[in-house]
Amino acid sequence: VLQQGESSYRLQSDANGLFAVLLPQGYYDLSISTSVVENGMTVQYSGDYGRSLRQTVSNDYNMDRQDQRSVSLDVNGPTNVTPGQSYTYTLNVANVGNTVETITLASNGWNMTFTANELSMGFGSGASSQQLQFTLQVPSNALVAHDPVKVLALGADGVQIGSATLALNVSASQGVTLALAQAQATDGGYYSYAVYVNNTGNAATSSR
Fold this sequence. Notes:
Strand order of the largest sheet: 2-1-3-4-5
Largest sheet: 5 strands, antiparallel
Structural class: mainly beta
Number of helices: 0
């Protein structure tokens, strides 16, 4: 697409990527794009240029590959967990983007041990999925109302390109400790004691 002010011209190249056009002198913005099938996927290439035309010219224009980065993570395993225990999960990893990726697996908090921390994955028809296992260690102080626990997929540049949230139900434990303030001298009348109550369980509770 050639753009000059409010006017635009749409051109189609031949099979070799060549085109010719006769235009008035002036400054033009040029946007070029094409699509190519790679490993069974359609990949876009594009470029933007500015040109001032004063005479007949011939130019070569390069286009940049438009990478789409995305990883799908599917987790299968226990949903009911107990603080202090460990559990094993199956993880299916699929590169659903359009570029080769070197993926590092990580957790956003709770400790996870993967059978393979780093995966090299193609895209499209080029070996773009793998299956592995990981062990989740539930913290001994895990709360029933906890922050989401996620498996993260990071690209070679450290950018997060995928995640999966584990659906976890942490078993509740209940416990309360009571402590009285130190007794003070009294003249035999009414006396108020301060009682300190501490919830030692892992869930909100009410006591009386």
